[in-house]
Every structure is written in structure tokens, then in C-alpha cells.
DNA sequence: GCGACAG
DNA sequence: ATCTTGTCGC
């Protein structure tokens, strides 16, 4: 497990963070299909916090896309680098997530984020941000529609409906289990929306959330508990 | 101006 | 995100 420092020049104010988003947004690539589902590696990343002790734990878990078996794992511990501000989540998570990705012993392949990509007030959510910084193909799969609207998809797994910001489709509400609340898929970097949905379905044979984020979530919570328990 | 708002 | 018991179900 690696320890992270907050990068020099990391935004300290909301205005600075928005300026960074405006700059990096130009580098998002939307015209690549992305890797095909079911082959190669798929990596889930997630983060857990202990605001009391100013600790953040990140995990990256690499799965074999065909079998969903765990191929590799890594974790990183850092200090909280930004307060939670809706629309600026990436500045809170990215330094530690980058460290966890760097610590992996193999290429991550497609990275699945717990949150949004283009489905973002400024069209530059966590998945876009992470994609631009790493050059990796990324998608976002979120549990909530945030500020966006959607019509309920048909009740069968695989059904979907546009996730809308007014008239603009920023992602899809995708049903991953029959009659269960959909997840909210959006493109991050170098992946197409239909392909992002296909990956999400390939990662949800049993549960609503992708196996990648379930594994990463469990791992980062575990390490957070370990470090918090170690230092009273 | 006020409220809502990924994790 | 995080705080939290029991409970229903495979």
C-alpha cells in the first residue's frame, strides 16, 4: 500500500478547481469505441473516507473481463485533498486513486469509476478527469441520477433510457437487474456510450452494481478500517 | 436569492 | 461518503 501526498498546485478553492476542469475538458476523447466487453482487463476504482482523521483510502481492483476473476489489487492512503462539493468530486478522490492505479502490477485496461463522466454539470466528471490524466479508457457508473432526469426504463435487465440534461443525452439509466433501480452510466474518456453500457451489463451478472466497483469498494473500506484501527 | 446536488 | 439493528431471503 502506497502513501500519497497532495500534489503541489492542487486547487485550493472552488474557482481554481473549475478553471482546471475547463482546461482539461478540451482533452476528453469521445470518438474512440473503447475496448470490447468480455476480453482483457477491467479495473474498478473506489475511495473511502475518514473525515475525522483526515484519511482517504483508495483501491484499484483488476478483473479478467471474461471471467470476472480478480487479477490484481492495489491500495493507497492519503490525506483529504478537497472538501466534497457537488460537481468537484474528482478533486477529492483523484490523487489517491492515481496512486492506487500506479501501484498496479499490470495494465488496468478499461477503468470503471464510481460516479459520473460526461453526466456532470460542467460535462467533466470524475471519469473524464481520471481518463484525461491517465490516458486510459474510462466510464462512470453512478447509483443516483444527480441533477439529471430520466424516464424509468422497462423492468427487464438490459433496458435503458436516456439520462437527460434538458434535451442533451449525457448518459443512460441502465437496468442491470430485473425490477431493480437502474444505474447511471456515462462516458469518461475514449469509450462510446453504447460500449460503456455493454461493459456495465457484462460486469453485472448478479448484482445491481458492477463487480469492479463492488470489489474496489470492499477493499478500500477494509484498508481504511485497518489504518484507522492501527492509529488510535 | 434559495434549494438541490456523484461520493 | 458515513452514522447504524434487526430482519427477510437465498
How much of the residues is beta strand, in percent? 25-35%
Helix content: 25-40%
What general outline do the C-alpha atoms trace?
globular
Instruction: Provide the CATH architecture.
Output: 2-Layer Sandwich
Strand runs, count: 9
Q: What is the helix/strand order?
A: EHEEEHEHEEEEHH
Rg calculated over all Cα atoms = 17 Å
Identify the strand order in the major beta sheet. Answer: 1-4-3-2-5-6-9-8-7
The helix tally amounts to 5
What gap, in angstroms, lies between the N and C termini?
19 Å
Low-confidence runs of at least 5 consecutive residues: none
User: Briefly, what CATH class?
Assistant: Alpha Beta
Q: What does this protein look like?
A:
One of its GO terms (biological process) is DNA repair. This protein has helices at 14-24, 90-102, 126-134, 193-202, 211-230, and strands at 2-3, 41-50, 55-64, 70-78, 110-113, 138-142, 160-165, 168-174, 183-189. The chain has 232 residues and is of the alpha/beta class. The chain has a single domain (37-230), classed as archaeoglobus fulgidus dsm 4304 fold (2-Layer Sandwich), CATH 3.30.2170.10. The protein has a 9-stranded mixed β-sheet with strand order 1-4-3-2-5-6-9-8-7, with helices on both faces. Helix 2 packs across helix 3. The longest helix has 20 residues, at 211-230. The two termini are 19 Å apart. The relative contact order is 0.19. The protein binds 2 DNA strands through residues 46-51, 84-87, 89, 92-93, 113-116, 119-121, 125-126, 140, 142-147, 184.
Write the layout of secondary structure elements.
Blueprint lengths: L1 E2 L10 H11 L16 E10 L4 E10 L5 E9 L11 H13 L7 E4 L12 H9 L3 E5 L17 E6 L2 E7 L8 E7 L3 H10 L8 H20 L2
Parallel strand pairs: 1-4, 2-5, 5-6
Antiparallel strand pairs: 2-3, 3-4, 6-9, 7-8, 8-9
The structure holds two DNA strands.
